[in-house]
Amino acid sequence: MATAFKDYYQILGVARTASSDEIKSAFRQLARKYHPDVAKDKKEGETKFKEINEAYEVLGDPENRKKYDQLGENWNAQGIPSYGEQGFPHPEAGTEDGQEFHFEGTGFSDFFEQVFGRGHRFGGFSTGGRTRAGAFSGPRHGQDIEGAILVTLEEAMHGAIRALSLQSVDPATGKAKTESFKVRIPKGALEGQVIRVPGKGEAGTGGGEAGNLFLRVRLASHPDFRVLGADLYHDLPLAPWDAVLGTTTRLHGLDGDLDVKIPPGTANGQRLRLRGRGLPKPKSEERGDLFVVIEIKMPPQVSPDEKDLWEQLRRTSSFKPSE
Amino acid sequence: MNEDAAPSNSSAPVYTIETVERITRISRDQIVLYYNYGLVSTIQTPDKSDLLFDDDAIHRLRRIAFLLSEYEINHNGLKMVTALMDEVEKLREEVRFLRER
Hints:
The complex is a heterodimer of chains A (about 325) and B (about 100).
Chain A: H1 8-12, H2 20-34, H3 42-59, H4 62-71, E1 100-104, H5 110-116, E2 145-151, H6 153-158, E3 160-169, E4 176-185, E5 194-197, E6 213-219, E7 226-228, E8 231-238, H7 240-245, E9 247-253, E10 256-262, E11 271-274, E12 290-296, H8 304-316
Helix pairs in contact in A: 2-3
Chain B: E1 15-16, H1 17-24, H2 28-36, E2 52-53, H3 55-71, H4 75-99
Antiparallel strand pairs in B: 1-2
């Protein structure tokens, strides 16, 4: 199946020479604009958000970016290692028997799956009736397929139902068929977690059952939160005077707004823990924590009046950090 | 839909050992053996009759079956391979977390 090239630089609106900070900043800006929760057109927002996430997944990772830059637009002609060359079969390319697969609705494009997807998979299990010589006898169960599914933090927080479609071409008949089905994303789905979809792997032969589809969760990058396990981290920029005097700031959490009290004398890099405000923990009623990480920012420029106040502070303060 | 599971409080499916046996085509004794070896974990760990598994466990058991049939790895090798795969996943997550700062 022909796969179109994706220009990730164009998607993020950055030059090919952009620094990693510029890429991060472009991602955050676009992700805020197109986040499904805030976009005016939800449908368009969701599509764009996934596209931006995919672009950031590639350009935000130095190794993926290097690989992508080497490919160029003629990537198809340059010979992406074919199925099986890296030790494990590649499900999107096909199975051992040459049956081609193609998924829609996982949140990743075919281009991404073909070039960057295989690092996260090792599907293609042979089971049932296979002899040492590689021949099959009697009913043979279909092979399992493993793919990735992009899950937003909101979906992980509340759980969701996603519509997927599987297109496959039978090499024997050349006929293509599309099968649509729904996948339940469990509440508390975490990075790397596997979701099994029974019977959506390769078809069995000789009366054997179809294989499973195993979808490995990849949590979508969020413009405001980083994730580690079930814990969320939010970097909060703070003016020096707010850090010294303390303040209360409103944070748009995944499940509503939160007023975060910043105590007086808060240091740069300090983590404020909001217990139980992270993602739900799988197999539990508990939730992870939300850590607010303080980033004290200096004003880029100061007015003459502000400068006077800083001068006054320098004269008055007894604080000597180097002593 | 991705369900043929036992009822549970969580929205993630939970399977009895009988269901896992049917899904993975791995015998109950082998599943218990892999569990005792620490190759697969359960979501509850009281006694043998109450073993309950999730999708991760099923995936892991299928991966074990694949490694055994395709690479003829012994149990010690299996333990090492699965531990390394877990570590790679964990490190990937940490690298991603640190890179997003």
